[in-house]
Amino acid sequence: MTLLGLASTERSAVQNSPAADNGVRWYVASVSLGKETIAEQHLYRQGFVSYVPRSKRTVRHARQLSTRTAAYFPGYMFVAIDVNRQRWRSINGTIGIRSLIMRGDRPSPVPIGLVERFIALTGKDGLLDFSGGLKPGSSVRILSGPFAELIGRLDRLDSTGRARVLVAIMNGEIPIDLESSGLVVIA
């Protein structure tokens, strides 16, 4: 079952369950590239809850730009498991899954709160939204569009979700206007 397919009350129950005393924790599974959706469907059929953080990515191919929804961590997904009660070894044989990330003979859990933080940053559209910490003057990385992967300084942020970023190009700062959802604050 994917997390975004749940009702909001069910989603909050799943978000809180790994930290609770019921034994459920989040684990990382290695997935064949581009097979995250297929793996999610097959895990759902087996009764497992999974989560794949997604974001918009700009892909350059043959001098053309296209924006697509893609996994934020290509080749990986999170699965909520109670290793003492569930048949977790079946995950390794699931279509699209290469294997769980292991420590010895048991899956290695993700630190408590990490996946819950990603879930909290996921918008209603199912995409990660890091724009919550944006403030004028902060350094930002552009995530999508023709200026993807450039780093600049946030100059202005308006109430409609538009941002102006100053990017250092050719001995000067060039202003670029774009959607604030395509920015992430960097340290």
From TrEMBL:
Tagged with keyword Secreted: no
UniProt keywords, alphabetically: Transcription, Transcription antitermination, Transcription regulation
Occurrences of domain NusG-like N-terminal (ranges): 23-122
Keyword Transcription (UniProt): yes
Designated name of the protein: Transcription termination/antitermination protein NusG
Organism: Mesorhizobium newzealandense
